[in-house]
# Entry
Amino acid sequence: MTPESLFSLQGKTALVTGGATGIGRMAAEALVRAGARVLIASRKGDACEAVAAELNALDAPGSAEGFSGDVGTEDGVQAMVDEIKKRTEQLDILMNNAGISWGAPMGQFPYHAWDKIMSVNVAGLFELTQRLLPMLMKSGTSDDPARVVNVGSVMGEVPMGDGAYSYSASKAAVLHLTKILAKELSPYHVTVNALAPGPFVSRMTAFATADEGTRDKVGKSVPLGRVGRDEDIAGCMLFLCGRGGSYVTGAVIPVSGGINIVTAGNIFAEAL
# Structure
């Protein structure tokens, strides 16, 4: 056994939703570099096509193709499934990364922000997984299961609202749903795990990570002292999707720089 054999994805086919930017883009590149054929889908099909072209220009062992897809409605989910079936008969890896957020102060948070966020972040994630299960089950074996990787958030692990109430609640639902699906799908040779990221550079966090100054400021509030990097996501994906992660299911990887373990101060030390 070699390090290459543990993390190679040669011959695998993956779907990454929301793969044109941010964490999805980071994951898509890691999968292509590991040898996978990667389907990239988001609401902006032209952006997905552009990213696929960039990844194909890397001269990596894998390949990429981009197209439009929307998990925010039942019809949108079915349209994405139909498009995937046109492109491939094989699906080994599903990364449920597509997600949206909404921010507003307490007292001003709108009612409709709940339905919109939950429709994409929870219902869309579940329905896409459910409709792609036959393809995943066909690919998975006891020795090499199919993989589902859901993208939650550290805000779904710890009580951080920061004005994103429906987002935080939706990500808590994603993490719990991950464990439910892991339990139910293990007999069918499908693993289900989740990432719970902290701050990474993305379109969703552009207000806080768009320039070096704000990234440094945000990083100082993270226990490990920085915002996330591309390789932090790449390492998680190659572990969970490669041979080295074939015996792991129902896990939530806290790729958050330690935010997940921040607690109250040492109250007894204060008394000394």
Notes: The two ends are 53 Å apart (CA to CA).
